[in-house]
Design a protein that fits this description.
Number of strands: 13
CATH topology of the largest domain: D-amino Acid Aminotransferase, Chain A, domain 1
Oligomer: single chain
Strand order of the largest sheet: 11-10-9-8-7-12-13
Largest sheet: 7 strands, antiparallel
Shape: globular
CATH architecture of the largest domain: 2-Layer Sandwich
CATH superfamily of the largest domain: ATP-grasp fold, B domain
Radius of gyration: 20 Å
Order of helices and strands: HHHHEHEEEEHEEEEEEHEEHHH
Strand content: 15-25%
Structural class: alpha+beta
CATH class of the largest domain: Alpha Beta
Distance between the termini: 45 Å
Number of helices: 10
Helix content: 25-40%
Length: about 325
Amino acid sequence: MFDWFKNFASPSSLHAAGVLGMNARNYDIIAANNKRRLYPLVDDKVITKNLARKIGINTPNLIGVISTQNQVSNFLQMVGDYKEFVIKPAHGSGGKGVLVIKSYNETTFVTASEKMLSYNEVYQHISNILSGLYSLGGQYDVALLEEMVHFSNQFSDYSFQGIPDVRVIVYQGFPAMAMMRLATRESGGRANLHQGAVGVGLDIKTGKAIAAVQHNKPIFFHPDTNADLMQLQVPFWREHLEIAVKGYEMTKLGYLGADIVLDKFRGPMMLELNARPGLAIQIANNRGIDNVLKEIKNNYPKNLNYEERLDFVLGVAK
């Protein structure tokens, strides 16, 4: 299956190594820690953004929302004060339906991957969002227009065209595991691992690279920039983890994934939260997450505020 899994001879050895499988994730972790009534808090990006703003989580500014077909033709007026913008579905997942426009005029739009789109193509993309083409379960959706995140120079050697992001798994309010996702030429400038992006496992205390994979196979250098991935270290690491932990404060979801980007001007910003984060983070870290979750559940202190939980994970002395 995956190169890392080849080290294990049987399902029992995978279990002993703390590898969390899909069924165990769904029933033992997600169902046990995430109440279904809380899912809309993260499944609807408009709700998520409003909650984040209320508790002081830094996010890309919302330009506007298009909720009906007769509003689509107004999108140029809505973004008139912005040189670049992002279109995304409110109920999308896995980066589906996200369109980044880095420059445009009334007839031509240039995406983050340098693709040229016509006005009609962008118009149709927004219409497709409303029809539910990219949403969870194919439900009717709304389109968000957001400010574009600006690529931090800190990662100029580590990502091809697209903005890299950090995924942090938070369990019962504690950061448990993290990785950075780096765009490649193959992934079309998107930080999606299944499209060919690179996943870099990060030490939860320091934000420094500990392993890297592409297509679930170990690598050491970025396939396009040739940057040494083992030299990667995420700056403002505590601020990244603070956003993730505040995601728990905001939603009370016991198991969640927080996606965070580093903006050149505004620092770490939350892109979205996920109530059903995937398991590829284990491959990127070359380590199973199940034992980490059990350690948090059984041995980490209770009744701490978010700053105290951060201090505990980071090993900050009091």
